[in-house]
């Protein structure tokens, strides 16, 4: 019993080790015969009660008094021996009632009480076995019997219990859908609900179960309970008695969990990682608290129910057998109940360990282990702590929440509270106080445990299950951390800020520490734990702890620092930024000035969408914080303390120099003796400081932002592996180079120049995301048929920054033509590209594993129980990378015969090997790949998880092996000399381990011939064994070499990965070449297929290459790139758009042909906005280097696309719809040039008609006559159209429509047919009443509006006539 007590005393507030009342059958077991129901009492409890009440089973009818029932047997099993028959309780819910019901292993589910379809029963059983038949709201519907104990009234999805924090809350889509179905049925009467379609067909398994139930159940609950105990408890009683006979020391049980290491026949032995398991485990058994941890984790492995919920809900009515164990084969593994982990534990073992299993009922969740009332909200122990309540919390420095410098990432835990806790829980609270904003995954044996508030998050976010007790407790096996889908809910959650794991047991450290102490205490015997990794949304590296990547696109960690400056034109801001994609190790560092609208910052946030933002506390201005709140509402935002956490530039440079992050780059990219800083960072330091410790003017903020990023990566323990990759690039806003260019010709002729697409344009044109946040209908979705993850990421980068240089655009177009000409090879290459893994991230992972980590890094001390599994995963990733690079070589070989015919220099470079004879960019990897093919046995390493290098590959391992062979030869030579010396041919070595190499001499050799230097080590009949000083010296040398060999083999994988990473630049260059090829193939597929219509190669001209220097756009027969059908299902109508160039003869406005501005009018829903988006997307496609859906396109390059489309406000930023319109318009007027493309849709509609018309008129005048940029300006202000009818800088166009019965007094007779054709001239009316009729406005409202419109029209005409007469 003392051992059992230690289990419960490990953590404070754990359940008392007294016999507990047996719970009623769980919902999943409620339908099973009583003879096969699962027990929930421990073997020790059973043994004890069996010895205390030996006649209880034999005299079941003997009544117990009330006092006796409160303890002993009565307390464990309740008053089950009473002969008084309980009267059946009335049914609490009638047919058709809506309820919450719960089955074992599943969350609460909305249901409806219905009769059983065969028997018509609505309730069966009595007492605690009383069950109700319910219909589960699901698609398709299911049904089953649920204990009335797990039935609660359904009060709708708006009730407090169904919301966040409530008993019935769940974020799962299937349950949310079920709640919608239940809500829809709530207004109906019970009789109407019963007419709903339900699952009516009984299954065969249910009929069998009905028969079993009828044959097993009796009229007496007492007999039913006793039968169950008699059948189920026999095996566990034997094991309990056997344990009791051992004299108080419980035997350690070996539990086998299905994993990759299963079947090896060996228990996990931490001595392989530098610790002695068996001795330490025996020692730990004598320690109350440490043993409790081990026992808890051992017992949990044998649980019949995993703490991780199954992904899919069982259907109890249709497949009851999945949860029903077979009565005659109780030793079969219950795989149906442990879906995530296929266990090999027998039912006998499960019965013995059931005392520590997960709760089969929901009492601990719904009622706080009996603390709450029926249906009451859970009140956990941690929620009762005064110092943990909201408003009363303090940080580690005892600052209250109301204080300004309160640190929410830490927590003050009172010392007197810690003194009352067990050593294990004390350590948990200590770690929690340091990282209060993190979820602690506390390692206990083979499980990661979550306690208190973390356990609640684990249940709500990850679908874990609460364990027994009044304190919240949940967890999952270590092997589950490899499952990316399991971690997806955590890393994407808005609630969980960090995912923190704790390093596993260090037995040898604890044992060594205790041996040095005279009287070690219980606190000394607790295994020490430390933080191994902190994972946030922005710091995922997809290591073995992160799991596999769940998506291909990058997630950035952004660090930003702002400096506000006064300027004559108003406020001006300077930003320093540093952002990194931790999955590939790419850093971007830069500093730039921005306007009052923060245009460049918004563009940065759109191109590189951050998953997490770091800033200095008190540094960002209110305007910047508003942008973060509005644009990055889903991103994590964390403030760091200035100086200590968010470093300044000097501290950043000093840390870079002291930490030796870039020491491996010396001799590769840098000259010997030069600074080890990468060239990008070196250019940001002062030229006068040779040590590189002083920032250059204009880069102070950038380096400070890098310092904040470095601090956070260091905190997450990934700084060494990421910074040592030396992948740094200076971030320069796209429009900065535009300002530095001498002229348009100079700007467009530079190959590195890109078109500017700010965040507003990307959103309005739906290039990356649609209005709902998805990718359906976007340009990215239309183009993205890339075969590789790194190709998809490159395509997104190309889309965000199209080219501006006509030569570069032409090279991409040439590449598409070349690939169209070699269709067979292109198809074969595409098939091979699909086989490539995410090599870009694999290279980063290999670099991380191969990077030498210091002794102070937790990874050097961590011992993982699933080390073999992790090693297999690492080796599989490495071999996958090797196979990927072989495939890339094969791709280059396939394109080799045709590459000489390619016209595109770009395509020739990426498909040609880089050798002395060839000018290609793709590195020759054949020699390296051949070397790695012979480095080690790939199949053996994949199967065993251990890499044994072949001779000549690993110098350390080879040196140790050669030394061992030489030493063994010396020993053999010495033995041969002794044979001659003694004249005995039978002389041999004997011994094993440390007793090896004893010379075994037969007694036939006379003792007078034995030299004096021979020392007897051991004897046996007829033989004596000797050692000499020479043997001792050679054996000592051999042992030293063997230790070196073992150490080299243990670190072999890391060294091999490190050697592979030495050629990182070549590997990475190959990946980049394949990414370009993949994107070009994707653009080729779009250019060939399109939407079924004609696809044209765009003609891009420099402004100086034509007779006129003005910018123009001539688009003929164009279609929308993403819309192939109209709303009514018809084919898309192509349109011509001419801006800044002479129109065709039928337009009849040759004099306005060079007008840069086009006023677009037309009826509502006539296609104006679609035409404008179509124009913008076609230009983006053309400068991307892709064919466009048109008959022809000729234009001069566009340096920037501006859009003002749609109507939306920014509530989070406190900006109204009209203010947003004017802000976007102001950005256009400030940054637009004559080479820009501006798309303005109905400007001024957010205010009064006169104000809106005046503002729209002024903006048109500014764009057409001062900036002279290409503009499409749609409007419904017909007075504005009249004002610009004769303006040479403005042309008129409208979306055509056909109107019938236009002059009829009855507006309902007026019919409009949209032609969706853009033609010259102005549209006389907007025909708003047609849209009102399509929107189903009431007819009387339309009639009233029509009369009012006639009055306005008459007054307007009268005013115009009067004005004309006066003039």
Structural notes for this entry:
There is one protein chain. By secondary structure, the protein is α/β, with parallel strands linked by helices. Among the domains are: 98-216, SH3 type barrels (Roll), CATH 2.30.30.140; 563-732, MutS, connector domain (Nucleotidyltransferase, domain 5, 2-Layer Sandwich); 766-948 and 1056-1089, MutS, DNA mismatch repair protein, Chain A, domain 3 (Orthogonal Bundle), CATH 1.10.1420; 955-1050, MutS, DNA mismatch repair protein, Chain A, domain 3 (Orthogonal Bundle); 1099-1336, 3-Layer(aba) Sandwich (Rossmann fold); 1338-1367. The protein is built from 45 helices and 33 strands. The strands form 7 sheets. Strands 1, 2, 3, 4, 5 and 6 form a 6-stranded antiparallel β-sheet that branches. A 6-stranded mixed β-sheet has the order 16-15-12-13-14-17. A 6-stranded mixed β-sheet has the order 29-30-31-27-32-33, sandwiched between helices. Helix 20 (649-659) crosses helix 22, helix 31 packs across helix 32 and helix 31 packs across helix 38 (1052-1061). The longest helix is centred in the middle third of the chain and has 33 residues, at 867-899. Residues 1-87, 210-375, 488-509, 666-674 and 1144-1151 have low confidence and may be disordered. It comes from Salmo trutta. Keywords: ATP-binding, Coiled coil, DNA damage, DNA repair, DNA-binding, Nucleotide-binding, Nucleus. Residues 203-229, 277-304 have a biased composition (Acidic residues). Residues 1-12 have a biased composition (Polar residues). Residues 53-63, 319-334 have a biased composition (Low complexity).
């Amino acid at each position: 019993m003392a051992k059992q007590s230690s289990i419960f005393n490990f953590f404070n507030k754990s359940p008392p080790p007294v016999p507990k009342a047996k719970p009623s059958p769980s919902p999943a077991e409620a339908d099973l015969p009583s003879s096969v129901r699962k027990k929930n009492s421990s073997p020790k409890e059973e043994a004890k009660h069996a010895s205390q009440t030996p006649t209880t089973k034999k005299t079941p009818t003997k009544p117990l008094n009330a006092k006796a029932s409160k303890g002993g047997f009565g307390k464990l099993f309740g008053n089950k021996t009473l002969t008084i028959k309980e009267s059946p309780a009335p049914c609490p819910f009638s047919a058709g009632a809506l309820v919450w019901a719960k089955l074992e292993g599943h969350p609460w589910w909305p249901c409806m009480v219905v009769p059983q379809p065969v028997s018509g029963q609505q309730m069966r059983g009595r007492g605690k076995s009383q069950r109700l038949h319910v219909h589960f709201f699901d698609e398709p519907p299911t049904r089953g019997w649920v204990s009335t104990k797990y039935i609660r009234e359904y009060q709708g999805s708006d009730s407090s219990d169904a919301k966040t924090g409530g008993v019935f809350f769940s974020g799962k889509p299937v349950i949310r859908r079920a709640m919608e179905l239940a809500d829809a049925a709530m207004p109906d009467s019970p009789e109407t609900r019963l007419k709903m379609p339900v699952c009516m067909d009984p299954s065969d398994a249910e009929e069998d179960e009905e028969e079993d139930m009828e044959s097993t159940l009796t009229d007496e609950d007492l007999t039913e309970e006793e039968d169950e105990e008699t059948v189920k408890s026999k095996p566990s009683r034997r094991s309990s008695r056997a344990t009791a006979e051992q004299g108080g020391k419980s035997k350690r049980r070996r539990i086998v969990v299905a994993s990759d290491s299963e079947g090896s026949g060996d228990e996990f032995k931490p001595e392989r990682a530098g610790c002695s398991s068996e001795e330490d485990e025996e020692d730990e058994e004598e320690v109350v608290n440490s043993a409790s941890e081990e026992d808890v984790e051992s017992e949990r492995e044998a649980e019949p129910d995993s703490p991780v919920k199954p992904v899919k809900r069982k259907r109890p009515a249709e497949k009851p057998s999945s949860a029903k164990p077979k009565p005659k084969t109780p030793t079969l593994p219950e795989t149906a109940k442990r879906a995530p982990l296929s266990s090999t534990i027998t039912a006998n073992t499960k019965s013995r360990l059931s005392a520590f299993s997960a709760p089969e009922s929901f009492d601990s969740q719904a009622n706080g282990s009996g603390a709450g009332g029926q249906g009451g909200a859970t009140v956990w122990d941690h929620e009762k702590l005064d110092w943990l309540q909201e408003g009363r919390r303090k940080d580690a420095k005892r600052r209250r929440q109301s204080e300004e410098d309160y640190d929410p990432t830490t927590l003050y835990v009172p010392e007197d509270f810690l003194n009352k806790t067990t050593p294990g829980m004390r350590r948990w609270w200590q770690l929690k106080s340091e990282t209060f904003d993190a979820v602690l995954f506390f390692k206990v044996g083979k499980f990661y445990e979550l306690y208190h508030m973390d356990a609640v998050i684990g249940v709500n976010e990850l679908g874990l299950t609460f364990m027994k007790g009044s304190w919240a407790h949940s967890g999952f096996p270590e092997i589950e951390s490899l499952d990316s889908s399991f971690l997806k809910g955590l890393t994407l959650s808005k609630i969980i800020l960090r995912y923190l794991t704790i390093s596993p047991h260090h037995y040898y450290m604890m044992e060594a520490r205790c041996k040095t102490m005279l009287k070690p205490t219980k606190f000394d015997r607790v295994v020490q734990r430390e933080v191994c990794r902190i994972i946030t949304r922005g710091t995922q590296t997809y290591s073995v702890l992160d799991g596999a990547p769940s998506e291909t696109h990058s997630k950035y960690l952004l660090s930003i620092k702002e400096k506000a400056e006064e300027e004559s034109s108003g406020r001006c801001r300077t930003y320093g930024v540093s952002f990194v994609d931790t999955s590939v190790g790419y850093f971007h560092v830069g500093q730039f000035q921005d306007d009052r609208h923060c245009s460049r910052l918004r563009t940065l946030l759109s191109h590189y969408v951050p998953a997490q933002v770091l800033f200095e506390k008190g540094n960002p201005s209110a305007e910047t914080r508003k942008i973060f709140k509005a644009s990055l509402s889903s991103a994590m935002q964390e403030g760091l303390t200035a100086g200590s956490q968010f470093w300044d530039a000097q501290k950043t440079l000093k840390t870079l120099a002291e930490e030796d992050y870039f020491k491996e780059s010396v001799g590769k990219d840098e000259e010997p003796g030069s600074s080890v800083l990468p060239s990008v960072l070196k250019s940001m330091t002062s030229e006068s400081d040779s040590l590189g410790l002083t920032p250059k003017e204009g880069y102070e903020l950038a380096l400070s932002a890098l310092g904040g990023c470095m601090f956070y990566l260091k905190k997450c323990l990934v700084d060494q592996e990421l910074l040592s990759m030396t992948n740094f690039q200076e971030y320069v806003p796209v429009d900065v180079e535009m300002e530095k260019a001498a002229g348009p010709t100079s700007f467009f002729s530079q190959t590195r120049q890109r078109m500017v697409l700010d965040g507003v344009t990307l959103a309005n044109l739906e290039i990356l995301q649609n209005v709902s946040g998805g990718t359906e209908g976007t340009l990215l979705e239309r183009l993205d048929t890339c075969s590789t993850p790194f190709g998809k990421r490159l395509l997104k980068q190309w889309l965000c920054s199209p080219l501006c240089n006509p030569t570069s655009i032409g090279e991409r177009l040439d590449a598409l033509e070349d690939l169209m000409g070699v269709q067979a090879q292109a198809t074969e290459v595409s098939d091979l590209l699909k086989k490539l893994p995410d090599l870009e991230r694999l290279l980063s992972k290999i670099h991380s594993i191969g990077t030498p980590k210091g002794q102070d890094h937790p990874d050097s001390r961590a011992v993982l129980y699933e080390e073999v599994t992790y090693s297999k995963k690492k080796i599989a990733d490495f071999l996958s990378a090797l196979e990927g690079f072989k495939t890339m070589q094969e791709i280059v070989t396939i394109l080799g015969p045709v590459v000489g015919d390619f016209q595109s220099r770009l395509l020739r470079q990426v498909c040609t090997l880089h050798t002395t004879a060839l000018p290609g960019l793709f590195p020759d990897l054949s020699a390296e790949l051949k070397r790695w093919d012979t480095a080690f046995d790939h199949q053996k390493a994949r199967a065993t998880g251990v890499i044994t290098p072949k001779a000549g590959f690993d110098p350390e391992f080879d040196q140790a092996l050669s030394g061992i062979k030489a030493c063994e030869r010396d020993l053999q030579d010495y033995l041969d000399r002794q044979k001659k010396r003694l004249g005995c041919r039978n002389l041999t070595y004997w011994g094993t381990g440390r007793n090896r190499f004893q010379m075994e001499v037969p007694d036939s050799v006379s003792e007078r011939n034995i030299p004096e230097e021979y020392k007897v080590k051991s004897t046996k009949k007829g033989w004596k064994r000797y050692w000499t000083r020479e043997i001792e010296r050679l054996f000592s040398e051999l042992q030293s070499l063997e230790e070196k060999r073992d150490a080299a083999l243990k670190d072999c994988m890391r060294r091999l990965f490190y050697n592979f990473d030495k050629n990182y630049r070549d590997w990475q260059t190959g990946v980049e070449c394949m990414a370009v090829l993949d994107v070009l193939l994707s653009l080729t597929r779009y250019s060939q297929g399109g939407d079924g219509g004609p696809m044209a190669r765009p003609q891009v001209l420099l402004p100086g290459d034509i007779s006129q220097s003005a910018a123009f756009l001539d688009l003929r027969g164009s279609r929308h790139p993403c819309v192939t059908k109209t709303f009514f299902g018809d084919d898309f109508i192509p349109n011509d758009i001419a801006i800044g160039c002479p129109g065709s003869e039928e337009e009849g406005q040759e004099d306005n042909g060079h007008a840069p501005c086009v006023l677009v009018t037309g009826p509502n829903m006539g296609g104006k906005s679609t035409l404008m988006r179509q124009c913008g997307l076609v230009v983006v496609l053309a400068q991307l280097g892709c064919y466009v859906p048109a008959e022809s396109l000729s234009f001069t390059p566009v340096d920037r696309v501006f859009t003002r489309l749609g109507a939306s406000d920014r509530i989070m930023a406190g900006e109204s719809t009209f203010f947003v319109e004017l802000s976007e318009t102001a950005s256009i007027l400030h940054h637009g040039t004559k080479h820009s493309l501006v798309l303005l849709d109905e400007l001024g509609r957010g205010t009064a008609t006169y104000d809106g018309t005046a503002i729209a008129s002024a903006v048109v005048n500014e764009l057409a006559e001062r900036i002279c940029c290409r503009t499409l300006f749609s409007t419904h202000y017909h007075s504005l159209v009249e004002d610009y009818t004769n303006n040479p800088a403005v042309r008129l166009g409208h979306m055509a429509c056909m109107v019938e019965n236009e002059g009829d007094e009855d507006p309902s007779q007026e019919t409009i047919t949209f032609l969706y054709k853009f033609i010259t001239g102005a549209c006389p009316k907007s025909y708003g009443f047609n849209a009102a009729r399509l929107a189903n406005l009431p007819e009387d409202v339309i009639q009233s509006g029509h009369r009012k419109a006639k009055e306005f029209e008459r007054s307007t005409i009268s005013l115009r006539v009067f004005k004309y007469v006066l003039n």
